[in-house]
């Protein structure tokens, strides 16, 4: 007879794809009225390209070919001429140190240019994912600060940045991080109801970490929540089946294994029914 995880995995792999379907402007203003700081355009000479789009394509191709120096010059050219994707790619390159020395402050400045050029009154839907991810990245940097720079830790500002991305873009990563803050991260006052609300919104969009945390909270009845073991096990199962990095996702695997070991047959059967219903609704 198939194990619970085997039966659940079959259901997940059949239907989980639906869960993962992740210019002059008004700058975002926080509740204090301060605009996100925009970096000044770099003054170094830039190579010539036929257009900003051509420079963007060249930069992406150079990066794929393993030539980050040429890629960065082309991307700077495109970024200086309004290509938001070029700004975003530069920010990600410096944030991860992918082919260049990691430089969080430079990444922060590029993300700030994207956020600072967002116009709420005239949103470009094509760029919404880029803009949203920039606000989330700024929130992450602001939450802990950037050591050795003028970017100090500011949890309240980080909260506002996550709130903006979660509310205006429905960004699941912003929703998850906002949930974590309402659940007591960064020393803020807990608001369990609000935390659960954002956690569910992110989990329902397929955010794996949100699914795992929501599942654990429901299964165990953490923070005074009335236990809902079957629903919790359903969310943990979704998270477990999407956890493909055994190192990064170790905590998710451990939460799932602990819940399955503690679950009884009724919990497992009800969880499987919830899972199948969830996947039907998503498809």
How are the secondary structure elements laid out?
Elements: H1 4-15, H2 52-64, H3 68-80, H4 84-96, H5 104-116, H6 128-144, H7 155-168, H8 172-182, H9 192-204, H10 208-220, H11 229-242, H12 250-262, H13 265-282
Helix pairs in contact: 1-13, 2-3, 3-4, 4-5, 5-6, 6-7, 7-8, 8-9, 9-10, 10-11, 10-12, 11-12, 11-13
Written account of the structure:
The chain is an all-alpha fold. It has 2 domains: 1-22 and 170-283, no CATH class; 25-141, no CATH class. The chain contains 13 helices and no strands. The chain has helices spanning 4-15, 52-64, 68-80, 84-96, 104-116, 128-144, 155-168, 172-182, 192-204, 208-220, 229-242, 250-262, 265-282. It starts with a helix and ends with a helix.
Order of helices and strands: HHHHHHHHHHHHH
Number of strands: 0
Oligomeric category: single chain
Low-confidence stretches: 5-27, 31-43
The average pLDDT score comes to 85
What is the radius of gyration? 21 Å
Kindly summarize this structure in a few lines.
41% of the residues are buried. Helix content is 63%, strand content 0%. Mean pLDDT is 85; it is low at 5-27 and 31-43.
Question: Notable features of this structure?
Answer:
283 residues, 63% helix
């Amino acid at each position: 007879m198939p194990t619970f995880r085997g039966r659940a995995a079959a259901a997940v792999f059949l239907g989980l794809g639906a869960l993962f379907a992740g210019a002059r402007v008004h700058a975002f203003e926080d509740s204090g009225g301060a605009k996100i700081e925009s970096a000044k355009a770099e003054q170094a000479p830039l190579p010539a390209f036929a257009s900003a789009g051509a420079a963007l394509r060249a930069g992406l191709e150079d990066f794929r070919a393993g030539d980050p120096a040429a890629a960065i010059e082309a991307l700077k050219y495109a970024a200086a001429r309004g290509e938001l994707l070029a700004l975003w790619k530069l920010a990600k390159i410096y944030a991860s140190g992918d082919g260049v020395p990691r430089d969080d402050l430079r990444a922060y400045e590029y993300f700030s240019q994207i956020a600072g050029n967002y116009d709420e009154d005239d949103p470009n839907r094509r760029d919404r994912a880029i803009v949203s991810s920039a606000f989330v990245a700024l929130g992450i940097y602001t939450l802990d600060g950037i050591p050795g720079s003028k970017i100090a830790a500011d949890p309240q500002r980080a909260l506002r940045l996550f709130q903006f991305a979660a509310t205006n873009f429905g960004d699941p990563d912003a929703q998850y991080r906002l949930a974590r803050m309402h659940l007591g991260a960064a020393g803020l006052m807990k608001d369990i109801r609000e935390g659960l609300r954002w956690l569910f919104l992110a989990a329902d969009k397929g955010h794996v970490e949100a699914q795992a945390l929501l599942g654990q909270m429901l299964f165990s009845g953490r923070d005074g929540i009335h236990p809902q073991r079957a629903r919790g096990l359903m969310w943990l199962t979704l998270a477990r089946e999407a956890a493909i990095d055994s190192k990064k996702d170790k905590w998710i695997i451990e939460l799932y294994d602990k819940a399955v070991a503690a679950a009884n047959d009724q919990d497992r059967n009800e969880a499987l029914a919830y899972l199948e219903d969830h996947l039907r609704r998503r498809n």
